[in-house]
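User: Fold this one for me? It's Vacuolar membrane protease.
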Amino acid sequence: MAIDLEAMGIGGKSSIFQAGPHPWAIENYALVAKYPTAQIIAEDIFSSGAIKSATDFQVYKEIAGLSGLDFAYMENTAVYHTKNDRLKLLKPGSLQHLGENMLAFLLHAAASSNLPKDKGESSQDKSIYFDILGTYLITFRQRVANMLYNSVILQSLLIWTTSLLMGGYTAAISLALSCLSVILMWICSIGFSIIAAFILPLVCSSPVPFVASPWLVVGLFGAPALLGAFIGHHMGYLILQSYLSCTFVGRKRNLPMIVKSDVAKLDAERWLYKTGLLQWLILLTVGNYYKIGSSYLALAWLISPAFAYGLLEATLSPARLPKPLKTLTLLIGLSIPFLLSSGMIIRLTGTVIGTAVRFERNPGSTPEWLGTVIIALFVAAIICFTMVYLMSYVHISDAKLPIIVGTCILFAISLGAAWMGVVPPFREDTARAVNVVHVVDAAETYNEKPVSYISLFSSTPGNLVKEADQIGEGFVCGRDRFQDFVTFSVNYSCWTDKGAQTGWVASDIPAISVEKDTKDENRITQIIIDTKLSTRWSLGINTKEIDDFLLKDAADLSDELIPLGEKSSVDGWHIIQFSGGPKAPTKFTLTLFWNKTRAAITSDYEEEEKENLLLRIRTDFDRQTPQIEKVLKKLPLWCSLFGKSTSPHTLAFLSSLPVDF
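Assistant: Here's what I get for Vacuolar membrane protease.
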């Protein structure tokens, strides 16, 4: 087995966010862990590709074929890969939590004679898991989930069908109008929260003013989302009530008009509650069809409120006059769902907010409001999913005006705090992620010399004008200088030529030289790549031109670093990232096997595509030039250098080889 201890933040509980493929590890962990924390919804999100990242566990799982567990700290994820991502800031309680769980599990696993021999890749063997208040870990197999979900879905459909048949045409129309209220709830909730997201960049110094103070999200997005949900739901309620009032005129002629109006309100209230059940039934059906592990949440949000309704509200028959929904129905119905999901929602929301710091993989490539809109959509979805039952109680209560006034005041206070800078978007302990790089671009020359400049860019949405003004040093900000760092690109940055011609030597520029090129039907090109003193580099190979390649250590040709075989490609490029120690090789032989359809292309095409690149390389040096030292000393305290495997060091050399070399 492979046990991976990761961190995507600093502190909190160490939670399992990937397990399997074989269920043995998670099932036995559940038996012995003292304070288990695990949520399969994290695995669902991670495996969906929504998080553009990977962990070491995937190497052992996908390449070695091992099963196991993947843990991670996720609290205060905004500091991930910044200056505050340090061991000394890890809370002792967090380390103790991980240690006690792991020690108990490893002692149990090491003494077991039943370690899994097979890989357990069957979808039926997949384990569904979630914890209850960090005390109990519940696990069950996918086959059990299928039986349970299918049973609940079929019974629910039977009840709905029976209810509609008994209610006839009126019940069908009432259900349709109830569904309209839920649809309007979603539309208005999402609309209001997105409007708030678009307002933020216009009035605040940063489009993500909530990074250092995540609680601001409650006022900035939660309040508009709740207000929109209520308004949309109430609009649907009024339409439904109007229809039911008309139907009662014909069906209950012996009742006074005022009584018919009150009965219509009560009946509308019940229909809206039952439509909340239908919303979760649809979600459970979709989750069951696609075998989504976190479908257990839909099950809990469906069964518990349905049970409370059936127990306390007595009947689904339209023959009896409706009564007001009992508060006890809501309390009993929502106790289990909130018990299972409240902690998960809080942790997940904190993680989503924290990732805004590093939202832009390619700085400047997306609108600065996009990350904020995604968070707004996330908050609106939580409101619509969790408040759908509560909404049905509000319409005939006295809470309507307090909800409207309260949400407006909360939004105004939160927006005012962000606008006036009372709550800064970043602090020294929760800093903005930036990179300061001395770039030497040999692919671009001026007076026959490589172009050199100091670049300041950020993966956090928003401009860098304030930071550049504080640093000084002649920085100019904009989109006029596109920067290709091989593993990513920069569309928006600040740059300065001041002092950029010193601190580096031409002999450090990587060399790409063509040793041999056979231009026939099976074109093969042999290239020597010399990274000079750099043992950390990234190389991009144009897979539109190259079908396969072989990479060897030039000092030991028997050592195939990357053998022949199928190669992956992203946007037409295969990216190699190399990082070695002081004795790592720096000279390599790259053999390229051209795509046959490209090798025979006419000279007209070659002339047209002359500027196309065949290879792109970046070499990194963990070295500060004099100008970099000066800039870093002036870097604002609310900024932190951002470093991960794809990020360049403070000195980077760029070079390339064109297709038509």
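One thing worth pointing out: Residues 333 and 561 are 59 Å apart (CA to CA).
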